[in-house]
Design brief:
With about 280 residues, the protein is of the alpha/beta class. About 50% of the residues lie in helices and about 10% in strands. Pfam families: GKRP_SIS_N.
């Protein structure tokens, strides 16, 4: 089957410069509504990837996101949100972007065209068979990402991919390819739009479900979140209060003493059991 680059197809909307602000916004929103449906169709593949990641992480494995441009930035974003949300060390979910941290704010010329650099970076992180490498590329053709996945898979490492074109070269390299076919972008070829939105949704789904499976959420609450500002201390205090039936100030003292909702609740209950 020949490879069709849907991400480069002409927009279904034309003469954009002649439209009013309201027409532009409604057009973008009309396209955005297609994203959740495309992601929904990919759930079986997302499930397949997550169920293979969890046992690896229980053995100390890590997740590496590999991407360039928007895709790389979204991987770094998702990775950076795991420590504050779930109280995990920043070494467990790692986002690598073609061109390094400079590329988070500025384009780095030709960085994504280097087929070997992605694997070299993984080797620098002592990649091993407990780890998972997830390549992100809307087009499914980014050499930096393809090279990393090809080498990782050859070394017996679990590989997944997220792309917006069916049967892409990237999908061919991944053990578990995730394809969310969102269709042409509102501005032709601007994959920071629907493709980026869909990538963010899938990354949220992967890491959130993995962290829940690893016991980092209780009920529906972030009991391991970092207490990095007043809002989070207040939220954590209310969680402790609700869980233990204590007054707000006592709950706050416990929370700040032990550093997380889970530790505070566990310590209080252990103390009660010993009395």
């Amino acid at each position: 089957m020949s490879f069709i680059k849907i991400t480069e197809h002409p927009s279904l909307h034309d003469n954009l410069e002649k439209k009013s602000v309201r027409e532009l916004l409604e057009g973008i929103n009309e396209e955005d509504q297609k994203v959740a449906i495309a992601v929904q169709k990919a759930i079986p593949q997302i499930e397949k990837l997550v169920t293979q990641i969890v046992p690896r992480m229980k053995q100390g494995g890590r997740i590496f996101y590999m991407g360039a441009g928007t895709s790389g930035r979204l991987g770094v974003l998702d990775a950076s949100e795991i420590p504050p949300t779930f109280g995990m060390p920043p070494t467990l979910v790692i986002g690598l972007i073609a061109g390094g941290d400079t590329a988070l704010r500025n384009p780095v010329e030709n960085a994504e065209d280097n087929m070997e650099r992605g694997w070299e970076e993984l080797v620098e992180h002592q990649i091993n068979e407990k780890d998972t490498v997830i390549g992100i590329a809307a087009s499914g053709t980014t050499p930096y990402v393809i090279g990393a996945l090809r080498n990782a898979r050859a070394h017996g490492i679990l590989t997944g991919s997220i792309s917006s074109n069916p049967d892409s070269p990237l999908s061919a390299e991944a053990e578990v390819p995730i394809e969310m076919i969102v269709g042409p972008e509102f501005v032709t070829g601007s994959s920071r739009m629907k493709s980026g939105t869909g990538q963010k949704m899938i990354l949220n789904m992967i890491t959130t479900s993995v962290m829940i499976q690893l016991g980092r959420v209780k009920g529906n609450k972030m009991v391991n979140m970092q207490l990095s500002n007043k809002k989070l201390v207040d939220r954590g205090t209310r969680m402790v209060s609700e869980e233990l039936g204590l007054e707000y100030e006592q709950s706050k003292r416990l929370l700040l003493m032990y550093g997380s909702v889970k530790k505070a609740v566990d310590a209080y209950r252990a103390q009660q059991n010993n009395e």
